[in-house]
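Researcher: We're teaching a course module on how sequence relates to structure. For the next exercise, students receive a sequence and then see the predicted structure as tokens, so they can try to spot secondary structure elements on their own. Here is the exercise chain.
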Amino acid sequence: MRRFMSTVLLGAALLGGAMSLAGCIVVPPPRPYHQRVWIGGYWAPQHVWVAGHWGYR
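Model: And here is the predicted structure for the students to work with:
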């Protein structure tokens, strides 16, 4: 049992050392999420009605 525990501890130490030498793991940030918003209808110049529609913010 003693030999098994020392083997496990040695393996954990080697794994920890290898991970510390590898540096930090960089994960790219998620793509920006554009929210859809409802743009209400409005009167444009020259009395033209522009209907409401979905747009991105």
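Model: If you want an answer key for the exercise: Residues 2-56 form one domain. The radius of gyration is 30 Å.
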